[in-house]
Please model this.
Amino acid sequence: MEKITVVGSGYVGLVSGTCFADIGNRVICCDVDPFKIAMLRKGEIPIYEPGLKELVEKNIEAERLFFTSEIGDAIEASDIIYIAVGTPMGESGEADMRYVHEVARTIGQHLNRYKIIVNKSTVPVGTGRAVEQIIKENRKNRFVKFDVVSNPEFLREGSAIEDCMNMERAVIGATSDEAAKRIAELHAPFRTRIFQTNLESAEMIKYAANAFLATKISFINGIANVCERVGADVTAVSAGMGLDSRIGGKFLQAGIGYGGSCFPKDTFALSYIAEEAGFDFNLLKSVITANDEQRFVVVNKLREALGSLQGKRIGVLGLSFKPNTDDMRYAPSLTIIPELVNQGASVRAFDPIARQAARNQIAEYYEDFGSIEETLEDCDACLILTEWSEIVEMDLTRVKELLKAPVMVDGRNCFTTQKMADEGFNYYSVGRPAVT
Ligand code: NAD
Model:
């Protein structure tokens, strides 16, 4: 049993802290946001993540999981301190490190005995060393020792608990073998593969992994755009490609591009890191540009289907960047909906979970509704932006009745073209022949 404090109780801190508690550790999750902590103390979860509420409740009851805004006290009470605060995109695309540095200062000020400081936030190479330096500068007693470890997070929002409990690997980067061993032991109940390396390589693995996945997405979207023009079907192409074990079938679904809190900022951050290091990472820059452009594919398809968008009413289904999350950070809908409005359309929209989060960001561009039925009533076309199960499973006959004309643009390839032809839709998807 380890005494762990997790600083930052967002998607990563809350999920990983809860999972560490669930495998038998005593975990204190803390945050600067007092509202978040007040909610958590009442057993309310500030984010939407399947299974999280039950797991938090279970571990609060078992007296293994605690919440506080007294960050200094929490640090003093534990032996392993996880840093899981945000590293958002700065003005030039760089990772904004102010929160990590702030936490490092607080840790330094409260270093009352030996501790292992583990960084879980996604951070540029060199951060572990910087954290070490900041702690040294701020500790009151220079004889109190500590070690810094990098243990980047790979969970996916929407299946975060599952990903944490059954993690494919734990990357542990450290200068001290002892500290690395202790963090490896902490992961033993997860029965995962441990990959141990130095601090710098561990930090780089996270960016490299995300940039590679983003590249796969932009690549298949490029292939999709070619498929459309030459009469091929990208779903068949990616299925055929994916059978090659060197390629693998995951992250080969064509659509409107990646979004969310990680890929956009991490690709920008890596591009910035490369530039600072004197390497012009052109491939990565193209991945980013291709992703930005891919958003507009569905806008062009709507124009193709309806002629001009002027005066047209579009029913948008799905706002979050992917299903099973309320995270709206860099969601494609944030770009697509304003563009539809710029082109003269009016927008009605539905999302089963991200409704409030979306309203907070682009409320002025659309009217939002609590059901698919209300959203699509009298619309000139339906536009799918997120493949929530209730959207994929909706009654297409009813959808046809609600729409003025049976026009659907599907940014997520939710249905087969055959099905949509049978249902009598004019159906435009990504990388597949249009059904007209
Ligand atoms: P988040 O914004 O959901 O949560 C960060 C939390 O840190 C917030 O609750 C914030 O109030 C808190 N915080 C900020 N400064 C603090 C301070 N000084 N002391 C205490 N708390 C403070 O962010 P997130 O999505 O959990 O991401 C955290 C890190 O993990 C980022 O670096 C991100 O890139 C990385 N990551 C995220 C995911 C993901 O899917 N969300 C996956 C892997 C890695």
